[in-house]
Design a protein that fits this description.
With 297 residues, this protein is mainly alpha-helical. Helix content is 77%, strand content 0%.
Length: 297
């Protein structure tokens, strides 16, 4: 037990020496790498404040300005169209204007012709002889009326035969009537040409207008697809103006063609009706002349 007490101070002395030798190493490991950073006081506000997020990039706005002319309208579509598209639109617009001008002209022409013809027939049926028929037909009131021209031509042929010394009430009666019929037929031929004036133009616009507009549409859509290929985008705001310009050509073609077709059929009906009326008048006129020749007038 005495030996154990002697060894205890020795063990304590050795432990104290080991502790003193290891203290500098522990102090060196705990020291910071940057002395300035170790000496700088910590900022509690900086440590507590959260990091601010970076500002988001503004979204790219899609421009609604079409070709620099504002919103999309018919006028802006025309101004932004390609030269071929503009030529098609201008041609169809002019055809439409000429068509409507012709339509109004023909309406007034047929209206005035019907009224004048009614007055002439009333006066013609009140005539008592060929001289009265000629006087009424050649009056200024009925100048230019087709039926009045027919009556005037027939009466003049009868008068020429009479002045030539032919026996128009006897042996030369049939030949006189035949010459009167030929004179009336000549006036009828000019009547058909007069009434059908402008109808060929209406037929051309009505039949070709949609195809001309379709050509403008095909060209415009083709140009739009070329633009899509060049810009590598299918954004509707980029594609829509070109397609709208293309479809405008189709709309213009139909706008020019539809009235032309409708009024062409309408005027053809009126021309046929007036032709039938003139045929009836020719029969009535020849009967009147034959009656007067039989009477010796």
């Amino acid at each position: 037990m005495l030996d154990k007490k002697r060894n205890t101070p020795l063990i304590a002395l050795i432990g104290a020496a080991a502790l003193m030798m290891g203290a500098p190493a522990f102090a060196q490991d705990a020291a910071p790498a940057d002395p300035a950073a170790a000496e700088a006081p910590a900022d509690p506000a900086a440590e507590a404040a959260p990091a601010e997020p970076a500002p988001a990039a503004p979204a790219e706005e899609v421009s609604t300005d079409v070709g620099g002319h504002g919103e999309l309208t018919i006028m802006t579509m025309f101004l932004d169209a390609q030269p071929v598209g503009k030529a098609v639109l201008i041609g169809l617009a002019l055809a439409s204007i000429f068509s409507w001008t012709l339509l109004l002209t023909k309406l007034f022409e047929f209206g005035g012709l019907e009224r004048q013809t009614n007055r002439f027939l009333e006066a013609f049926r009140g005539a008592k002889n060929t001289s009265d028929i000629g006087r009424i037909a050649m009056s200024d009131e009925f100048e230019g009326n087709p039926l009045a021209d027919m009556a005037a031509a027939a009466v003049q042929e009868v008068e020429v035969s009479r002045q030539a010394g032919l026996n128009i009430s006897g042996e030369h009666r049939e030949t006189t009537i035949s010459r009167a019929v030929a004179a009336v037929a000549g006036v009828q031929a000019s009547l058909a040409k007069r009434l059908s004036g402008g109808m060929q133009f209406l037929a051309s616009v009505g039949s070709n207008g949609p195809f001309i507009g379709l050509f403008g549409t095909v060209y415009g859509i083709m140009y739009s697809f070329i633009g899509i290929a060049n810009t590598n985008t299918t954004n509707l705001a980029v594609v829509a103006p070109g397609i709208a310009e293309a479809l405008l050509a189709t709309g213009m073609g139909l706008f020019a063609a539809i009235p032309s077709v409708i009024f062409y059929n309408y005027f053809q009906t009126r021309i046929s009706a007036y032709g039938a009326r003139s045929e009836g008048f020719v029969a009535e006129l020849l009967n009147a002349i034959s009656r007067q020749l039989d009477k010796g007038a």
